[in-house]
Amino acid sequence: MRYFFEIAYKGTNYAGWQSQPNAIGVQAVVENALSKLLRAEISILGSGRTDTGVHCEQQFFHVDIEHALDEVSFLGKINSFLPSDVAIRSIQRVKEEAHARFSATERAYEYRITLKKNPFLEGQALYYFKDVDLALMNKAAATLVGVHDFEAFSKVKTDVNNFNCNLKRAEWVKEGDKLIFHISANRFLRGMVRAIVGTLLEVGNGKLSLQDFKLILESKDRKQAGMNVAPHGLFLTRVVYPESIFQQ
């Protein structure tokens, strides 16, 4: 029987979703907890990977379990086995062909910036003190919407068949002393959001023109784009699936 688990985590103490040689990932922590609870070796498959230090408000993974679960009871049990910075939000039975990664139709991220030093946002927002032209940044961001080749904003060594993504939203919103970049697409490349944000900030502070930004996208050359911003400001906020995959 296949189940989807909805998970949230603070990424500060983890090497992203997957473990690295010298650091543990969220996936391993969850697999360890499930294996202890179910008294069997459990492997899970996530909807995608997050990099070291990136946070997650909503992600999913699927797991195959021999016997039916009491979702409500099991939710309480699994959370008691997990550390305080990892939480399972919900458990739902899905059809056998449902896949946490390949069935997803949309993913959304936010990159959060604080314009004033705020100790309560330490580790959860980038402190950025330079003045930026928000309107110009949004003009540049708007050119990303639609289907484009995003190789210029992808990590160089990555195992993908193509660099095409269909962006549905790319927009900066100012909320008091905070700037939040909202971006959603059918898929994302490794390092893509952080590279886009870093390049848009260079547009905002006058280092790049709107035309420069368009040429960077067309170049398909990572060296032309700006630096990756720090991971602690990035949040995976939503993963969307078709209703048809869930058991009625």
UniProtKB/TrEMBL annotation:
Keyword field contains Membrane:
no
Q: Origin, by domain of life? A: Bacteria
One Pfam family assigned to this protein is PseudoU_synth_1
InterPro entries per the UniProt record, alphabetical: PsdUridine_synth_cat_dom_sf (IPR020103), PsdUridine_synth_TruA (IPR001406), PsdUridine_synth_TruA_a/b_dom (IPR020097), PsdUridine_synth_TruA_C (IPR020095), TruA/RsuA/RluB/E/F_N (IPR020094)
The enzyme's main class, written as a single word, is isomerase
Q: Which residues form a coiled coil?
A: none
Keyword tRNA processing among record annotations = yes
- Quick one: a GO biological-process term for this protein? tRNA pseudouridine synthesis
Record key words, sorted = Isomerase, tRNA processing
Catalytic activity as recorded in UniProt: uridine(38/39/40) in tRNA = pseudouridine(38/39/40) in tRNA
Q: Which family, according to the similarity comment?
A: Belongs to the tRNA pseudouridine synthase TruA family.
Protein's name according to its UniProt entry: tRNA pseudouridine synthase A
